[in-house]
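batch job 7 of whatever, protein = Acyl-[acyl-carrier-protein] hydrolase
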Amino acid sequence: MAAAFSCPVFLPSTFSYNGNRYHGRIKIKINATSSTKVKTLNEIAGAGKGSSSLATSTEIGHLSQEQIRQRIPTKKQLVDPYRQGLIIERGVGYRQTVVVRSYEVGPYKTATLESLLNLFQETALNHVWMSGLLSNGFGATHGMVRNNLIWVVSRMQVQVDHYPIWGEVLEIDTWVGASGKNGMRRDWLIRSQATGITYARATSTWVMMNEKTRRLSKMPEEVRDEISPWFIDKRAINEDVPEKIVKLDDNARYVNSDLKPKRSDLDMNHHVNNVKYVRWMLEVKIKALPSIYINSLKFHINLKIITTSFFLQTIPDKFLESHQLSGIVLEYRRECGSSDRVQSLCQPDEDETLTNGVEQSLLKNMILTPGIMEGNGYLGPLDVKSYGYTHLLQIKGDSKNEEIVRGRTRWRKKLSTLPYSS
């Protein structure tokens, strides 16, 4: 005799009533017996019109073991219960609900810039996943794989108003649009599910590269036909004239020539992931301190050490408690491989003279160490004085250096309280 049982299933939902947005879960109760075939959540979610979950039994016979394990959809699906994802914007945008994990925050329980960049990358891939266009490449469509093409980012801009806290539930929206004849633009918005306030926004431009020749390529018509139905004429950041980033030279104030890619820095396209570039930009040291700095030191130190290199190991707690990175612009020039030797250069906008010793200089200009990547709270209003820096990553060559990426960062004072919508 078959045993009876019931199983509740919860699916995320968002709806509006009298102008207010509400978030909740839809509860579905399944009653069955032990002989009943129970469908997976993915099959339940994809049962609607215009969506399909996974491959049919006939198609499975033609799939590799890797594709079966990945469960990549072969057709567009509207809901992904495994990733808490939904198709929005009239069927072409994507929204994912995420929780800020403990390993994504810094010492002040706020998400790091690196964590936000990783979330941008993950939601972009999940968007392509749900479209049914994803092949086995790193975000590549079926047409791209047939033409040996991969995506590479050429420019990215991020603006952060507030940093999410540990355990906070976030909604991340992402969508794509056209960028010229052969490029694609991808935008993101991150907001708090509890307050509805937008925390961060970002925009990026992507072009295609031939995976074998490592040269940029035009967009084939079959690829254009795949992705153009997903384009939206909407921008997360309105930038009439893109900010021009000047090229730094060896006279830059901060230099780190000791960077070496590891195999763990490579992504599925076998080049260094762009999130790693950002961390390298902020891992710099001052080349030398002029004699005026020596007179201000309150302790004894070997003169040869102070005049050759002075490593910035930490940031004063006073600065970290009151300031945070508010924006970054990146212009990518070429890819970087595991055998390249990388140099990081940086120049502050204002080369202020030292007035109150080394600590004063650290608080004003020397804010460029690995600790900067660790989230430290909420940013202040736009009228607060900000600090700007120009960055450059380049490959050190025997005869000449080749640019990897140029960057600009902005820093502002943070708020001491959590913002809420009115």
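notes: The CA atoms of residues 348 and 389 lie 4 Å apart.
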